[in-house]
């Protein structure tokens, strides 16, 4: 691979893969070496390689099969035959009726835009489908289903339905969770990379004591997404040779993401004998709560303490100061889910797992540490 001045290494790796695919050096369904082996080949870190592979998978150049590895996919630049018949009449986003108010959040609205765009390109209708506690899904062979966040009240009836539909090869994909015993494709966010990006940003600004605010019952009982972000945090510390300190982890037991957790986390950290110089909040709502607490306690952000959030909520662009955050790219969640649905319906090769890479959005709430 020839070095490209001014181009990030992960992008150079992506370009190298695409070039080899175009030249026929890498052919559809060719197996790839492991992430560790590729890191050695390209002489880069596992995190850089992880990001490159995530973007390649997102764009359809590679696909992953759980427990088997990664493989070269079909070149997405090759358009489908315009004369091919459309197999799906509609795609449903399945949600719980009792949680309909959550769908007004930007996380879902952005995801819906991604689904809607791919449906429009394929001439297919997109609808929301509310299900009750019995999880009854319509028996429509010419429909595709995207299922998100139904595990809180998972019933045997839903599992029976999904097992039957897997056997029938129905068009179904899940987002942010998967069933280990079912061969169903799923879309997940790369929370490890997100946690790494947030922490690496603060470390690059000279911060060495970085507090983290997470949601869970305890340090040992944390939501999977937050646990993965914490893993990314620890990986970043290790890459900078910074020792991990458990006292810099604040875990709050809350039913949902809110500003109160961030407020309490900030107050906890400032009560320490040696408080952190920066805070990585596990969500934008917690980051906003930390910002409120800083203002109430007369701390200047970012002069006295830096704060970074996670999610990419629209309001982060309008706070004072504007919040630095990690954008989950939920539009891509929806778009990729819909793409996989159509690939299933056409009997095409598809990714068993699609991992959506996040982006760091640097704004005004983070700055170089004061010496």
Walk me through what this model shows.
The chain has 371 residues and is α/β, with parallel strands linked by helices. The protein has three domains: 9-72, Arc Repressor Mutant, subunit A (Orthogonal Bundle); 90-187 and 331-354, Rossmann fold (3-Layer(aba) Sandwich), CATH 3.40.50; 191-328, 3-Layer(aba) Sandwich (Rossmann fold). The protein is built from ten helices and 15 strands. It has helices at 9-22, 35-42, 46-58, 106-121, 156-167, 191-204, 224-239, 259-270, 284-296, 330-345, and strands at 62-65, 69-72, 90-96, 125-131, 143-148, 172-175, 186-189, 210-218, 221-222, 249-252, 278-281, 306-308, 325-327, 353-356, 359-361. A six-stranded parallel sheet has the order 4-3-5-6-7-14. Strands 8, 9, 10, 11 and 12 form a five-stranded mixed sheet that branches. A two-stranded antiparallel sheet has the order 1-2. The protein is globular. It starts with 8 loop residues before the first helix and ends in a 10-residue tail after the last strand. The model is unreliable at 77-86 (pLDDT under 50). InterPro entries: LacI/GalR-like_sensor (IPR046335), Peripla_BP_I (IPR028082), Tscrpt_reg_HTH_GntR (IPR000524), WH-like_DNA-bd_sf (IPR036388), WH_DNA-bd_sf (IPR036390). It comes from Paenibacillus eucommiae. Pfam families: GntR, Peripla_BP_3.
